[in-house]
């Protein structure tokens, strides 16, 4: 996915930090090899939202909810919320990925 940067303010910084992920980790996930991006139709009221599943630089799996915004001709990713995946979620996710690869 090609984009020009991130859209941070106190609102989304606080919400993302709430679950223990730093802005740096979230940017790593969204800038690196994202394993999966899914539409988040349940929370896409006024704007289209997506969920990315990826790994931090330390290898922890995480979900990042985000939207794409255009500002001054630049395409920016705005993280909305982020959290680490629970062990059960990681196992289920890895099983599904393995099935897709077979």
Would you give an account of this structure?
- It holds the Pfam family BrnT_toxin.
- InterPro entries: BrnT_sf (IPR038573), BrnT_toxin (IPR007460).
- It is a single chain.
- By secondary structure, the chain is α+β, with helices and mostly antiparallel strands.
- The chain has one domain.
- 31% of the residues lie in helices and 34% in strands.
- It contains three helices and five strands; from the N terminus they run βααββββα.
- It has a five-stranded mixed sheet with strand order 1-5-4-3-2.
- A hairpin with a 5-residue loop joins β3 and β4.
- The longest helix has 15 residues.
- 17% of the residues are buried.
- The mean pLDDT is 88.
Give me some keywords for this one.
3 helices; BrnT_sf; BrnT_toxin; alpha+beta; 102 residues; five-stranded mixed β-sheet; single chain
Summarize the structure.
By secondary structure, the chain is an alpha+beta fold. Helices cover 31% and strands 34% of the residues.
Terminal CA distance reads: 25 Å
**Share in β-strands:** 25-35%
Q: Mean of residue pLDDT?
A: 88
Q: Secondary-structure element sequence?
A: EHHEEEEH
Low-confidence stretches: none
**Overall 3D shape:** globular
SS-based class: alpha+beta
Number of beta-strand segments: 5
The largest sheet is: 5 strands, mixed
What is the helix content? 25-40%
> How large is the count of helical segments?
3
Number of domains: 1
Order the strands across the largest sheet as they lie in space: 1-5-4-3-2
User: How much is the radius of gyration in Å?
Assistant: 14 Å
Pfam family, one: BrnT_toxin
InterPro entries: BrnT_sf, BrnT_toxin
């Amino acid at each position: 996915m090609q984009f020009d940067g991130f859209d941070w303010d106190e609102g989304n910084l606080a919400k993302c930090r709430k679950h223990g992920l730093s802005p740096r980790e979230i940017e790593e996930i969204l800038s690196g090899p994202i394993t999966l991006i899914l539409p988040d139709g349940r929370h896409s009221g006024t704007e289209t939202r997506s969920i990315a599943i990826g790994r931090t630089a330390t290898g922890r799996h995480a979900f990042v909810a985000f939207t794409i915004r255009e500002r001054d001709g630049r395409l920016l990713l705005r993280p909305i919320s982020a959290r680490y995946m629970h062990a059960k979620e990681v196992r289920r996710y890895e099983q599904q990925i393995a099935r897709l690869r077979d």
